[in-house]
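Something for you to look into today, if you have time. Just paste the record in under my message, thanks.
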Amino acid sequence: MIEGTFSREAFLGELRSLGYELTDSREVGSGVEWLRWSGSKSGATHVLQLHFGKTWNAYSMRAGVVNEGAVNIVRSALPRIGKFLHPALLSPKNEALYNAPCLASFDVGRGLDWKMLRLPQFGSRATWIEELRGETAGFLKANFWSVDDISGIEALLLREETPFEWMPTNAVLRVAELLALTRLGGGDLSRLEGCLGAHDEQIRRETGKGLPEVFASLRLAIDSQLQ
């Protein structure tokens, strides 16, 4: 069993050994930091979000893969997409929407069933290095590291099993990102709409509109940025 004293420097050092380096992206005053994986390919940037919780003296961790072009398209289309979003989400103070490198990330702690969804885990703090090098690295490798192009990101965002469920994410932004990816990749929009049918209920809860109306409106918003 590998044991080690937990500290921010030690934690970042272990992540660095997995290929993750800190970026300049910060969410001021929130304890959130972003890292980028050195194995990222052109068009598929792998990121990791760390959120330090003072109460637990531990990190939550979210992972994602983005095509920066698609994310920029979605952000440029926000004036038209905004009618489907809660006003608070559109606040200029919402750095996660406007500045974070990833719009849809997924909770590694939920995927690995961490206690309190944080590492070091409550009750087993001494083994955090072993857990990070073992199960955590294995989870990232199995679910993220092989994603290296637009089609791979699309497949990732369409997943529904834990921790990729749609409920913890914003469905409108997730659909908008999928539309941007499909447009950039030359994919089939009719097929995409069919794949999204299972999420009509969540989209109705968030917007008061059904999937066909929201999809058509978001499609126009995304297309307006490609002309």
About this structure: DSSP finds eleven helices and five strands in the chain. The two ends are 57 Å apart (CA to CA). The mean pLDDT is 94.
